[in-house]
Design brief:
Layout lengths: L1 H20 L4 H21 L4 H5 L7 H11 L11 H20 L3 H18 L7 H13 L13 H7 L3 H4 L2 H28 L2 H4 L3 H5 L11 H5 L2 H23 L4 H19 L2 H11 L4 H26 L17
């Protein structure tokens, strides 16, 4: 019994040491940052032509009504600062540039924080166009600020290194623990989202009798012409799809807790949300969920990138060998005497 106790203590100390010295999911969390930035940029780009009508001071929601709503709810929005068209255009385009910078990995945590503020502001300006992904983005982006989510898929500018060199050593030593805290927070948030959604569905009569998918796919806003009717007219697809959805959502956290099942649970989740994007048109929501699922696939993404790099190097070398370029031992061509 004493040996078992000592083993348990050593095992616990090993896990604690790992959490404080080795960063978790660097590739995965970097993918999460890039994809969340892309979702934000896609939102701005998708609404760009109608931006003044949807979000402007003279748009569909009168500016003063919007300001009253902001004050009543106790939140904030940069669009409530002024009813000037110049101010609106400045904030909107700044938000678009910040989203693009986050996607490309430019600017580090300061730009990520700016992106969150601007994204929150535009979402509050017109909540009627949101699809649910905004709620997860609100929560996850501040967690990403704790992480080293710019370690991959980013364009180095030297700004982060310059700022980091001026940070006290004691704070720099907290980089890895804070990173792991952010990663674990995102993972816990995802498990909470899945369990809450699954348990909520379990209580619904339509999910209990296996007919929920039939009614969901008949809603005009969530219908894919020529495809949805094939699904909701097939009893087997409706019943199996309804029950499979509930089972997956409820048991997702268990799959994440088991290391061998973790990649499969994450891949299943990604496939599940891609189908939501295709069949229901909730692209922003689906991509936000997929972005957060990437933290569970860090090792797989890293191995895929390594394989892709090796494959591209092999193909490039093979192509050069077949084309005979560059030729070896080729003497430089002398310039004519009168050149110059």
């Amino acid at each position: 019994m004493a040996e078992d106790g000592e083993f348990a203590v050593k095992n616990s100390l090993t896990h604690i040491d790992t959490l404080t010295t080795r960063p978790l999911s660097l590739v995965g969390v970097s993918g999460t940052r890039a994809l969340l930035g892309f979702v934000g940029f896609m939102f701005y780009a998708g609404e760009y032509s109608d931006r003044r009508y949807m979000f402007g001071p003279g748009g569909v929601l009168p500016w003063q009504v919007f300001v009253d709503q902001v004050h009543e709810s106790g939140t904030f929005s940069l669009y409530a600062v002024s009813d000037s068209t110049v101010w609106f255009e400045t904030v909107f385009h700044l938000g678009m540039l910040a989203a693009l910078a986050v996607t490309l990995g430019i600017g580090g945590r300061l730009v990520l924080l700016l992106h969150w503020i601007l994204l929150w502001s535009i979402y509050q300006r017109q909540i009627a166009v949101l699809d649910g992904g905004d709620n997860l983005a609100y929560v996850v982006i501040p967690m990403l600020i704790l992480t080293r989510c710019y370690s991959h898929f980013s364009i180095p500018t030297g700004l982060a290194r310059t700022i980091g060199s001026r940070v006290p050593e004691a704070l720099r030593a907290m980089s890895t623990p804070l990173h792991n805290l952010g990663v674990l927070s995102v993972a816990l948030q995802m498990c909470l989202v899945y369990v809450t959604s699954g348990l909520y569905k379990v209580q619904g009569k339509l999910w209990q009798d296996g007919t929920a998918l039939f009614y969901v796919m008949r809603v005009p806003e969530f219908t894919l012409p020529g495809v949805s009717d094939i699904v909701y007219n097939n009893d087997f697809l409706v019943i199996s799809g309804t029950y499979a959805t509930v089972i997956f959502l409820v048991y997702f956290p268990l799959g994440i807790l088991v290391p061998r099942l973790r990649p499969w649970a994450a891949v299943t989740s990604i496939g599940f949300h891609i189908s939501i994007a295709v069949f229901m048109g909730l692209t922003g929501f689906a991509l936000t969920m997929v972005a957060c699922d990437l933290i569970f696939l860090s090792r797989g993404i890293s191995e895929a990138l390594t394989w892709a790099t090796r494959s591209s190097s092999f193909l490039a070398g093979h192509a050069r060998a077949r084309l005979g370029w560059p030729k070896e031992n080729t003497a430089p061509v002398p310039l004519p005497e009168n050149a110059g």
